[in-house]
Structures are given as C-alpha cells and as structure tokens.
C-alpha cells in the first residue's frame, strides 16, 4: 500500500529535529505528509515560517491546531491561514454550529486551499474517563456522531476520529473522510493514547488518512518505514 495517505507527526519544539524528520521520512516514495501540531507551531522558531520550510520538504501539510474559540475569532483565524501552503487544518466541533458555519463560509470566500477537519473527542479519552469528565451518560461515538451530523450540513466533510470508533462512524456517515491518529506499529507501547490501532487495521475500517508519530520517529527512518511497509502488506 502507498504511504501517501500517512502523515508523520512532527511533535517537537526543536526545529532542527523537525526538519530532519521531514527530510528523512518525506519525499518521493516515502511518507506522504507532515503533521504540524501545537507544540511545534508555537515554538520560538515555529509559526508560519516553519510551515513554509516544512512545505518544501513534503507533498502536504496537516496543521493540527484544534481551533476552539468564539465564532468571530475563529473566522479571523481562517483569514490568517488562507494563504498558507497547507492541506488540512483542525478545529473543535465543540465550538458549535455558528462557528462551523462561519469558518467554512470564510474558507470559501477567502479562496483558501485547505480543508477544515473537525475534531470531536480526543483519543486520549477512554469511554469511562470521558463520561466522568463530562458528567454525562452519552457515549463517545454518540457525541461524535451528533457533532459530525451537524458539521456535514455546512459542507465540512473531513473529521478526526479514533480508529476504535471509525467502523461505526464510517457506516453512519459513508460520505465523510476520516483522519485517524493513535496509530501504532504492532511492536509499540500505547503511551498516552487510550484508543489505538495498527495501520492496516485502521485502513481496513475505513480510514482515509493516518497520523503516526513516535512509532516511527523513535526508530531509524529506513527501518521504521520498512516496518510500516511490511505491516501494510
């Protein structure tokens, strides 16, 4: 299977290290994109200059900022992002329908080249910990389904979800696209994510894109990529 549907998470505040990962894992025949998250984006040498640099080392950028604010502030953020060389940008579906409608309208009107990606419940939550924190009896997949259903009406059709929830959500919303984090090679520990899955299992359940981080960056690049290729066949 091609690796062009996998994003490597550049989860470091060390710009030199991030650029090395992008060079080592990116390029022709290798990982298809880089995910720039909050840690690396807000680092002293991060921001949009960092995004520009990484965009020259990889075919696509997934900017994972998980925007969540009042509607006008999120709309303003969309204007700031409009000319950046990025493919996907995340926001929290919990921001509400008014915010979702406004940012999608602004994205279209500003001619931005990226797609919004809705984030529902973070993969660090288990079913039990989510219900305890929110003081609700609603399940993770039901909360996610409600938010996704509303967002689809605005024209947004790409979402982040746990691989464990993917099979159900994919069957409920076959028109949507799914970006799945919490992906580990079979030899890896769980670390801080409670709901994880192997790359092939996630693709089999309907994932369109995967996000992988320490599972790959903790290893020598060539060996990590070969292990990934082996698991995908």
N/C terminus separation: 7 Å
Question: If classified by CATH, what would the architecture be?
Answer: Alpha-Beta Barrel
Molecular shape = globular
> Based on DSSP secondary structure assignment, what is the total number of beta strands?
8
Q: Strand content of the residues, in percent?
A: 15-25%
What is the chain-wise order of helices and strands?
EHEHHEHEHEHHEHEHEHH
Describe the structure.
- With 233 residues, the chain is an alpha/beta fold.
- It has helices at 15-25, 38-41, 47-55, 71-81, 97-110, 127-134, 140-152, 163-172, 199-204, 214-217, 221-231, and strands at 6-9, 33-37, 61-67, 88-92, 115-119, 158-160, 177-180, 209-212.
- It contains eleven helices and eight strands.
- Helix 4 (71-81) packs parallel to helix 5 (97-110) and helix 7 crosses helix 8 (163-172).
- The protein is globular, with a radius of gyration of 17 Å.
- The model has no long low-confidence stretch (mean pLDDT 91).
Layout: helices, strands, pairs:
Elements: E1 6-9, H1 15-25, E2 33-37, H2 38-41, H3 47-55, E3 61-67, H4 71-81, E4 88-92, H5 97-110, E5 115-119, H6 127-134, H7 140-152, E6 158-160, H8 163-172, E7 177-180, H9 199-204, E8 209-212, H10 214-217, H11 221-231
Parallel strand pairs: 1-2, 1-8, 2-3, 3-4, 4-5, 5-6, 6-7, 7-8
